[in-house]
Specification:
The structure is a single chain. A hairpin with a 2-residue loop joins strand 4 and strand 5. The chain is α+β, with helices and mostly antiparallel strands and 314 residues long. The chain has two domains: 132 residues, 2-Layer Sandwich (Alpha-D-Glucose-1,6-Bisphosphate, Chain A, domain 4); 147 residues, Regulatory factor, effector binding domain (Multidrug-efflux Transporter 1 Regulator Bmrr, Chain A, Alpha-Beta Barrel). The longest helix has 29 residues. It starts with a helix and ends with a strand.
């Protein structure tokens, strides 16, 4: 009988020793993924909780629904502050609450590491240490699942920018142009009125229009708008003021195509600028719109197709 008690005592002592050796007083938990995305784009979607619904999936994979809490395996998650390329995330499950930090590390313009870390205090009580160790394993699984959801979303540029952006060039290099200033944003009728003298000059010189009309609208410092319009031609023409000729270098462009009215077009231009900044590309000249749809014939702006061009060095 004594041998049995001795064996039990030794087992308990060894178990306690193992608990204190294998489970530290502070349990460090971390998860990491590498994403094919810029650090800036990753940061925008990670640090802004209003954007989480775009990429968040619960543990059984349904997307986030409405204004409900962001949950995963019974835990809720929320932003708890952020700084440059770093976001704090608070995690709750019942009465347990812990804060964590996500750090973004840039390895290349299109390669970012996402490191998520937190710690749990295990305490001195061996039973609490075991409980906290099990909680740490649960948090680790949650981190891994959430990070994989984020990776799947952020690695597709169309998810980040809302449009497909690609590199290309243009064959329309000979342009007949003119420009106007106005106190208000030009209407569709005004834009096509600006284009009319350009078309008439092309016709008088018996040349051919070789592509779609192009426009650029820029807000000036005095809050007026400068609208530049151009029509590509099949040969070099002559021009008298206010018309002028421009040769465009068939260089590199970041290009996207959008469908919709002025809001959609301006949003597309904004996303192109984000893309250029995120991937550290140099803008070589002003962007322009190519009017694929004749807006005088199609008055429903939701059906307008516009191709946007951003000149870039590389």
């Amino acid at each position: 009988m004594k041998k049995w008690w001795v064996a039990v005592a030794i087992t308990l002592i060894l178990t306690l020793i193992s608990i204190y050796i294998l489970i530290p007083s502070k349990i460090r938990i971390s998860g990491i993924v590498f994403v094919n995305a810029s650090i800036n784009g990753s940061y925008r979607f990670l640090s802004d909780q209003s954007k989480w619904a775009r990429w968040w999936h619960s543990a059984d994979n349904p997307q986030h629904n409405g204004n409900t809490a962001f949950t995963y395996h019974g835990w809720s998650f929320s932003i708890d502050g952020h700084s440059v390329n770093t976001a704090g995330i608070r995690m709750r499950a019942g009465k347990l609450e812990t804060n964590s930090i996500v750090n973004l590390l840039s390895f290349a313009p299109d390669s970012t590491g996402v490191l998520w870390e937190t710690t749990l205090k295990a305490g001195n009580n061996p039973f609490n240490r075991v409980m906290q160790y099990r909680r740490a394993a649960e948090i680790k699984r949650n981190m891994t699942g959430i990070l994989n959801n984020f990776k799947s979303f952020i690695s597709d540029p169309k998810n980040v920018y809302g449009i497909s952006i690609f590199r290309g060039s243009t064959t329309d290099t000979l342009l007949l142009c003119t420009k106007y200033k106005s106190k208000t944003y030009p209407t569709t009728n005004e834009i096509y009125n600006y284009l009319n003298p350009v078309k008439e000059s092309i016709q008088r010189q018996h040349a051919q229009i070789s592509g779609f009309p192009m426009i650029n609208i820029t807000r000036s410092e005095d809050n007026s708008f400068e609208t530049q319009v151009a029509i590509p031609t099949d040969r070099l023409l002559t021009a008298k003021d206010p018309l002028f000729v421009r040769r465009m270098v068939p260089g590199n462009f970041m290009i996207c195509e959008v469908k919709g009215g002025n809001y959609t077009i301006n949003e597309g231009l904004k996303q192109l600028e984000y893309f250029m900044n995120d991937y550290r590309k140099t803008q070589m000249a002003i962007p322009f719109q190519s009017l694929i749809t004749d807006r005088m014939k199609e008055r429903d702006s939701s059906r307008w197709i516009t191709r946007l061009y951003m000149p870039t060095r590389r």
